[in-house]
């Protein structure tokens, strides 16, 4: 995904993970979030900014109601927010929905 973000010079990314299944443990959420934030930093020299907004749309139990993973990634410099629906994610990204 970051290859495409760098190539297209995207500043806003909507990740629709509503079909992702599983029930991640707290430690798995930590490791994924740390990996995601580190990956964004690794792509900085290729044009992916820490300010690139990532909106993750997920469903429970993949989406943690307490947003632990979101907090971990944000604390490591990633600009992201997790949502349970696309319209809210698009509003946060300040993108008009397709008609």
**Number of domain modules:** 1
* Alpha carbon gap, first and last residue: 25 Å
What does the overall shape look like?
A: globular
| Average residue-wise pLDDT | 96
Low-confidence stretches: none
* Percent in strands: 15-25%
Give the C-alpha Rg. 13 Å
Largest sheet: 3 strands, parallel
**How many helical stretches?**
4
Topology pattern, helix = H, strand = E: HEHEHEH
Plain-language structure description:
By secondary structure, this protein is of the alpha/beta class. The chain has one domain (2-93). It contains four helices and three strands, in the order αβαβαβα. It has helices at residues 2-8, 26-42, 68-75, 86-93; strands at residues 12-16, 53-57, 79-83. It has a three-stranded parallel β-sheet with strand order 1-2-3. α3 links the parallel β2 and β3. α2 (26-42) runs parallel beside α3 (68-75). The longest helix is centred in the middle third of the chain and has 17 residues, at 26-42. It is globular, with a radius of gyration of 13 Å. The model has no long low-confidence stretch (mean pLDDT 96).
Short note summarizing the structure:
The chain has 99 residues and is α/β, with parallel strands linked by helices. The protein has helices spanning 2-8, 26-42, 68-75, 86-93, and strands at residues 12-16, 53-57, 79-83.
Name the features.
3 strands; alpha/beta; 15% strand; 99 residues; globular; 3-stranded parallel β-sheet
Strand and helix layout:
Elements lengths: L1 H7 L3 E5 L9 H17 L10 E5 L10 H8 L3 E5 L2 H8 L6
Parallel strand pairs: 1-2, 2-3
């Amino acid at each position: 995904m970051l290859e495409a973000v760098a190539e297209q010079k995207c500043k806003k990314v909507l990740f629709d993970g509503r079909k992702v299944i599983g029930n991640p443990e707290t430690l798995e959420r930590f490791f994924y979030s740390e990996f995601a934030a580190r990956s964004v930093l690794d792509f900085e020299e290729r044009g992916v900014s820490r300010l690139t907004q990532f909106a993750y749309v997920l469903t429970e139990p993949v989406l943690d109601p307490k947003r632990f993973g979101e907090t971990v990634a944000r604390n490591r410099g990633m600009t992201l927010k997790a949502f349970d629906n696309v319209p809210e994610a698009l509003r946060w990204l300040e993108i008009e929905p397709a008609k």
